[in-house]
Amino acid sequence: MVKISLICLGKLKEKYLKDACAEYEKRIGAFCKLTVTELTPAPLPEDPSRAQITAALNTEAKLILSKLPQRSGVVALCIEGKTLSSEDLSVRLQELSIKGSGSVTFIIGSSFGLAEEVKERADIRLSMSPMTFPHQLARVMLLEQIYRAFQISSGGKYHK
Questions:
Q1: How far is CA 101 from CA 5, 34, 37, in A?
Q2: How many angstroms separate the CA atoms of 128 and 121, rounded?
Q3: Closest listed residue to residue 106, CA positions, set 41, 29, 36
Q4: Element (H, E) at 107
Q5: pLDDT tens digits for 33-47?
Q6: 45-71 pLDDT, tens per residue?
């Protein structure tokens, strides 16, 4: 069975987001073994300097990289990443699961993004959209797309 891991900086705060994630996690469970790891973002002052942000991202990078499963395909969510259709994501997920010995890890950084070191480790840099969304909504959107990808690859009706 395919193993999907989500490494997320920060915890979900709103009940409606937690409920949505729980629903998609339940649905995804029919297709794979899913784990979600929430990491604590590096602390930053109210109005951080560029140097403080860079230092925080580097601290977070060490933590993220220490949690990556060995031989996993890696997808880093980042604003400068490539946008994919749901069908293309389904194909890439299948390819990565084969390359990563049945394991794919998605990384959602903090509100300031991801350090370059993490992006360089990724097999795919993925952008959800050129639009801006609340940071915590990214997890719901990603889980929905992972579920949709599995539905597409299995010929399910959800995608229609």
A1: 13, 15, 20
A2: 19
A3: 36
A4: strand 103-108
A5: 999 999 999 999 999
A6: 999 999 999 999 999 999 999 999 888
- Burial level of 82, CB count in 10 A (0-12/13-18/19+)? exposed
The SS3 assignment for 92 reads: helix
The reported pTM is: 0.94
Token pair 């999907």 is at which residue? 4
**Residues 112-152 pLDDT 10s:** 999 999 999 999 999 999 988 888 899 999 999 999 999 99
In three-state secondary structure terms, 145 is helix
Q: Tell me the C-alpha distance between 31 and 145, whole Å.
A: 13
Q: What is the pLDDT of residues 81-103, one digit of tens each?
A: 999 999 999 999 999 888 767 89
Tokens of 29: 């469970």
Domains detected in the chain: 3-154 (3.40.1280.10)
Per DSSP bridges, beta strands 103-108 and 3-9 are: parallel
Tokens of 146: 């992972």
CB 93 within 8 A of CB 153: yes
